[in-house]
Design goal:
six-stranded mixed beta sheet; single chain; alpha/beta; globular; Oxidized Rhodanese, domain 1; Metallo-beta-lactamase, Chain A; metal ion binding
Length: about 475
Amino acid sequence: MKIEQIYTGCIAHAAYYIENNGEAAIFDPLREVQPYIDRAVKDNAKIKYVFLTHFHADFVSGHLDLASKTNAKIIYGPTAKPAYEIISATDGQVFDVGNYKVKVIHTPGHTMESTTYLLIDEKGKEHGIITGDTLFIGDVGRPDLAQHVIAELTQDKLARHLFHSLREKIMPLSDDLIVYPNHGAGSACGKMMSKETTDTLGNQKKTNYALNPKMSENEFVTAVLTGLTAPPAYFPANVLMNIKGYESLDAVMKKAKTPLNPIEFEAAANETRALILDTRTAEEFAKGFIPNSINIGLDGNFAMWVGEMISDIKQEILLVTTLGSEEESMVRLSRIGYDHTIGYLDGGFASWMNKGFETDTIDRITAEELEKSSNFEETPIFDVRKKSEFLSEHLVGATNVPLNEINSHLAEFPKDKKFILHCAGGYRSMIAASILKQRGWDNFVDVIGGFETIKNTNLSKTDYVCPTTLL
């Protein structure tokens, strides 16, 4: 069967493309749809359907733009009632794509409209299942997201729906089916996904904790709900955009692609409430940046941290990027619904410096330099990793302020003495550093390379705490 997984690693997302006899279908497309159109053109095929497994929370789907550009029909499973025209398929309904068949299997649990699509080849053989967020490799979709949009859909209710969907709809299927999930490791839509992005259903029945046939319904609910962290703040906003509709990406990009010279950029920053977002690397940002700008680098978990740290999805944004990364920054913002970029600094940060405008820097030290100044009573150290990372291993005397909680813990950072910041590798601590700079702190240094480099010093033999020591 001709099926392609189109994987986007920065948000751990998988879309799917199938084609047969001049007809094609796309499953769970991203916001930028031209690559899917180009793929169909390559096969001399017409995109007939856009299938959605559910109303996505972690990205804005490209179904509306794709349907508008290709006249494809949008397919959702039962109970979906968006504010635009769709085919709301019934459980068991079959759609033809060339000589292939796509069978609808309603699998509520992650959300109520969640649907799995069974792929059947031209010979009538069942090939695989596109599972959306119902079944991942090594995990299942978290059932706590829908309650942030519809309060009565409690996580307990959805977890019980998911239990029955898996037992009654998925597990009876053939072991040789290939499982094609919507996400891989790194997505916030699950908690322990494998790095593998496909597997056989038979192997998942053997290895996926959620498919253990001996597990009772109550045991399943406990297992699925245990260990869930709060979802990123932008998730409910993305769900609503996918339900209600949104402005076309072409229109969003037209507004965003406004080059501003330094004088125009400074004027726009002063005359609007726009946030200056610098998407360069931590290393580049530390050497020089526009005062009051926030650093969230494209080279890390950009979408997740934009969603965590920029609370208003309608926030106007002015971009500073490395040369050539302007459009990528805009697209990656719009993937998660941040559609209000109003321009970018033409020529990058160098053009700002060349104009002689004010700049700022972040002081940084190496792990070896930290080792020489490790009296944490004299110089406090703040670890901005997740709580679970901190509890696993950390420096004795360090204070844990997770990055996503920094705005509610600003009072913990001293203003009367120097302090030190670090995360795991330097990406998150630079976000924290930029926020602290914006809020008026200037009495700190950032550890280059973070905790991974600290472990290679003598601090790991003296002040380093690991799980056995914690116990």
